[in-house]
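Let us practice reading a record.
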Amino acid sequence: LLGIAGGLGIAVGDAIMFHLFKYGAASLSSSAQQRFERYRSTIERWPTWVQDLAVYLYLGVSPFPNDLLMFALAVLRFRFLTILPLIILGGISVATAVAYLGESWPF
């Protein structure tokens, strides 16, 4: 239960950051926008399941801040509704793992 509640809270925070970055991306310089467009065309060549797996593994397993990925996804113009389930699942996964490890370690 703690993992679900914590994961949904993480997802809400990530959704807010995604939208802030999405609207802030318009202020990037044209050279930066061109660079990100090249990255986008490279990523679009990957199968969708590889993109989804990479997003889930970053959000649900890696110790890195989610804001970095939210910035990249927003600037690369990923559709929010396609990544929302991955954001929720990744948040629930990491919150459940932290809750379980916190309960099982004798500190």
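A brief commentary: The mean pLDDT is 89.
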